Amino acid sequence: MTADVLERAAAGGRITEEEALELYRNAPLHALGKAADTARRAKLPYLADTATYIIERNINYTNVCVTACKFCAFYVPPKSPDGWSRDLEEILRRCGETVELGGTQVMFQGGHHPEYGVEYYERAFSAIKENYPELVIHSLGASEIQHMAKVSGVPIEDAIVRIKTAGLDSLAGAGAELLPARPRTVIAPLKESGERWLEIMEKAHTLGLESTSTMLMGTGETNAERIRHLAMIRDVQDRTGGFRAFIPYTYQPLNNHLKGRTQTTTLEYLRLIAVARLFLHNVNHIQGSWLTTGKEAGQLSLHYGADDLGSVMLEENVVSSAGARHRSNRNELIHLIRTAGRVPAQRSTTYELLAVHEDPADDPVDERVRSHIASTALTLVD
Ligand code: SF4
């Protein structure tokens, strides 16, 4: 049965949730990777021998959060002496650095601050667009939309339309974590349900805001729950086509209330990438992670169905707080992709190729374009 299913999926055919679970559990590893690679090449002929990356900056605007997810090492509760918020001037300064370093995208990422309603995001996004119109704002997810709508006392649709009008270009799909009810309730009991997360994303797609989708692996979920998460995304994608990409990443065990509970191995991660490529036949891009899984796992993911290796991450503070210690720079990311057997290419948020690095002699040389945990990319260059 497995060989038939692999053959059908590699040819772009639709497989069932049960078949996906069977592949995830039992398909021979190399056969699974080969089928996913075949599906990737057929789905994205313009990227057959290419793998992409993007230069972006996460802007962490506040660590104050009322949602208290158990896997999160970044947030503090309201009134904590360790709480902070970045003012607009600082946010704009970081956007300016991003532009100066050749970044094309910013990702707003932060806590559910009890006072931040729609107005806060409208102000921030319109100021960014006014000062840096060339920057794409690819940020937030259903959880933030639900929270800001509640704080402002407006319907979800109004919140979506208002932040889009203010300058939000697309949603990053944060907060998906695990969509099935059992594992979601265990790790994020105060977050909206998985069904609600999808409902809000569907509304956003319908209102013209496309998004990516994410998944947090390794907090104690079962294999069947991992595949259910994929199935829930595929169902919405059947109706909207609004998910540009699927991005699984792995739980980091430090400084949070789950206290080191982790079960994702590199092979589990690679199998998930491959099954996602085969099962999510209606999603174009599958992103491999180097930040949480390590650089070699990231390279391998390119042979298991991933077409993209994410971003240089000029700033990252969230998963770093939970223990992710991998750092990279543009040259290394290019090197990782090239030595994995693909032509590296810088992409835009919407996956157009901005620069194809065919010849190592022509590689960009700005060593400032590197990832940082801290918040001032330009001054931390050593
Ligand atoms: S993951 Fe997000 S919503 Fe959950 S506690 Fe952390 S900052 Fe808050």
Automatic annotation (TrEMBL):
Domain spans labelled Radical SAM core: 51-282
Highest taxon of the lineage: Bacteria
**What keywords does the record list, in alphabetical order?**
4Fe-4S, Iron, Iron-sulfur, Menaquinone biosynthesis, Metal-binding, Oxidoreductase, S-adenosyl-L-methionine
Query: Which biological process terms from the Gene Ontology are attached to this UniProt entry?
Result: menaquinone biosynthetic process
Q: Which GO terms describe its molecular function?
A: 4 iron, 4 sulfur cluster binding; 7,8-didemethyl-8-hydroxy-5-deazariboflavin synthase activity; iron ion binding; oxidoreductase activity, acting on X-H and Y-H to form an X-Y bond; transferase activity, transferring alkyl or aryl (other than methyl) groups
Binding-site residues, S-adenosyl-L-methionine: F71, E177
Cofactor(s) in the UniProt record: [4Fe-4S] cluster
Where is (3R)-3-methyl-D-ornithine bound in this sequence? S289, S311
EC category name: oxidoreductase
**Cofactor binding note:** Binds 1 [4Fe-4S] cluster. The cluster is coordinated with 3 cysteines and an exchangeable S-adenosyl-L-methionine.
Q: Which InterPro entries is this protein grouped with? A: Aldolase_TIM (IPR013785), CofH/MnqC-like_C (IPR045567), Cyclic_DHFL_synthase_mqnC (IPR022431), F420 (IPR034405), FO_synthase_su2 (IPR020050), rSAM (IPR007197), rSAM_sf (IPR058240)
What Pfam families is this protein classified in? CofH_C (PF19288), Radical_SAM (PF04055)
**SUPFAM superfamilies of this UniProt entry?**
Radical SAM enzymes (SSF102114)
Residue positions annotated to bind [4Fe-4S] cluster are C65, C69, C72
EC number, UniProt record: 1.21.98.1
Q: In which pathway does it act?
A: Quinol/quinone metabolism; menaquinone biosynthesis
HAMAP family, A to Z: MqnC
UniProt-listed PANTHER family: FO SYNTHASE (COFH), LIPOYL SYNTHASE 2
Q: What NCBIfam families does UniProt report for this protein, alphabetically?
A: CofH family radical SAM protein, menaquin_MqnC
Q: What is this protein called?
A: Cyclic dehypoxanthine futalosine synthase
Species this protein is from: Actinospica durhamensis
The lineage is: Bacteria, Bacillati, Actinomycetota, Actinomycetes, Catenulisporales
